[in-house]
Write a structure and sequence with these properties.
mainly alpha; 3 domains; about 0% strand
């Protein structure tokens, strides 16, 4: 084993971290999450266990770094998504990328989503959640969301991770991802409206105010607002307010 030298440079430290993560990734892929212990990883990487703690802090720090290491290609693909005209289609694409990665990389996916600790989420999980919430925020801006962004994000996260983990629990030759397309569409359809809104909330309010203003008229030749029980001054004030809202 290499000794734990105190005179290493920043480049030496990064190289050693990468060597340890590479060894841990190989252990994970070959033997699953149960094989990841600090002693086993240190032995596979050819370093002393104290060096591993110095570089990653503790086992949780190592697992977080390993998750990010394994998910880098996935996150790179998600980061590179070019926003399309329809935010809902972008959300569908993001869903597909998530599921495809999980089925191609079962050991990393199980580490990432099958071993979460309350109050602690790997950095890669957090970044993936932030990317999803940005997609949903675009959908909200387009007037497509029926529910708050956070509610929509939780529905998508729960359904994708639950479905992928359920598939990964089955023998490899029995994993059929086809039903996930129906699940995807059911979940997304439940949180979005079928057609983009014509305009934002303020514009819709202005449109409705203008329609009501047209309905009540200008008060000449008989005033339906007064006839409904309002005073003339109140009717005039109502028209003034509607006029402001319609702008």
């Amino acid at each position: 084993m290499r000794s734990d030298l105190g005179s290493e440079t920043g480049a030496d430290r990064r190289d050693q971290q990468q060597a340890i993560l590479k060894a841990a990734a190989e252990l994970l892929t070959e033997h699953g999450p149960a094989a990841i212990s600090t002693r086993a990883v240190a032995t596979a990487a050819g370093v002393q266990t104290p060096a591993l703690y110095r570089l990653f802090g503790d086992k949780d720090g190592l697992l977080d770094a390993l998750a990010s290491y394994g998910f880098e290609s996935y996150l790179a693909e998600k980061r590179a998504l070019e926003p399309g005209e329809d935010a809902i289609e972008d959300i569908r694409r993001g869903w597909n990328i998530h599921v495809e990665f999980g089925l191609r990389n079962p050991a990393f996916y199980a580490l990432m989503y099958g071993n979460l600790r309350p109050g602690r989420r790997p950095a890669a999980v957090q970044e993936n959640g932030e990317i999803l919430r940005r997609l949903l925020e675009r959908a909200r801006e387009q007037g497509r969301l029926r529910v708050p962004v956070e509610t929509a994000a939780r529905a998508i996260e729960a359904s994708t991770t639950g479905a992928v983990l359920q598939l990964l629990a089955q023998p490899e030759d029995e994993r059929d991802p086809a039903p996930l397309t129906g699940l995807r569409d059911t979940v997304i359809d439940s949180i979005v409206s079928t057609e983009p809104a014509a305009d934002d909330a303020r514009a819709r309010m202005a449109e409705r105010a203008l329609a009501l203003l047209a309905a009540v008229g200008d008060g000449r030749g008989g005033d339906p607002v007064v006839d409904a029980g309002f005073r003339a001054t109140e009717a005039a004030l109502l028209r003034e307010w509607l006029s402001v809202l319609s702008r």
